[in-house]
User: Which sequence fits this backbone?
């Protein structure tokens, strides 16, 4: 038991001052690899606009791997099904309670699967919708109305849900916005530059909030 506890603490002590992100690989058949140009573009934007030093060569880490403890920020996306084994859920639980952060951006269709799988990670918690006055919307870039709408999908309003631990936001789920599509290269979705800038600025706010809190 001591060894299991020691290893996450060792890694967390090394990443608390790091500015790195990683892509989370998960099971269930969903395309965890969606939006391949999204993270590189967001990283470049953050390095330019926020002065961060995030490596452009981000890593992919599996939910059950100890490698997640090397990164303070994990990003997860995809369409449809998500599945975590018991061991993966326990690993993510330890990671998040030990100082890590997970941003899940719904590319489309993740929510019904995600709700079930997040219960494995936090059986005693419920997500809360973040109000428009939450600090994450008021970092370098201000979003007075909260999460911006990037892609229409079901024509529902964008929503940001969070899990908290001892007052700290540890997991953010962005729904009905599709920030990742807005981060992609311009020719992928042919979004107007104004829309891309909204997506990149909101993504930068998330990065800034996590790295500074």
Assistant:
């Amino acid at each position: 038991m001591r060894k299991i506890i020691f290893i996450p603490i060792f890694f967390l002590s090394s990443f608390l001052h790091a500015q790195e992100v990683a892509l989370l690989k998960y099971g269930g058949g969903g395309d965890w690899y969606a939006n391949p140009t999204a993270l590189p573009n967001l990283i470049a934007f953050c390095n330019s606009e926020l002065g961060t030093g995030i490596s452009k060569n981000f890593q992919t880490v599996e939910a059950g791997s100890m490698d997640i403890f090397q990164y303070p920020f994990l990003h997860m996306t995809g369409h449809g099904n998500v599945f975590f084994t018991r061991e993966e859920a326990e690993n993510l639980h330890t990671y998040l309670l030990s100082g890590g952060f997970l941003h899940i951006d719904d590319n489309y269709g993740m929510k019904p699967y995600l709700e079930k799988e997040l219960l494995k990670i936090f059986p005693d918690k419920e997500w809360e919708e973040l109000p428009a006055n939450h600090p994450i919307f008021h970092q370098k870039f201000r979003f007075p109305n909260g999460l911006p709408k990037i892609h229409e999908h079901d024509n529902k309003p964008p929503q940001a849900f969070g899990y908290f631990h001892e007052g700290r936001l540890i997991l953010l789920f962005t729904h009905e916005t599709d920030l990742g599509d807005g981060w992609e290269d311009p020719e992928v979705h042919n979004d107007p530059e104004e829309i891309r800038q909204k997506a990149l600025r909101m993504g930068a706010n998330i990065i800034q909030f996590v790295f500074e809190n």
User: Anything to note?
Assistant: The two ends are 30 Å apart (CA to CA). The domain at 2-212 is CATH 3.40.50.12140 (Rossmann fold). The chain is about 35% helix and 20% strand.
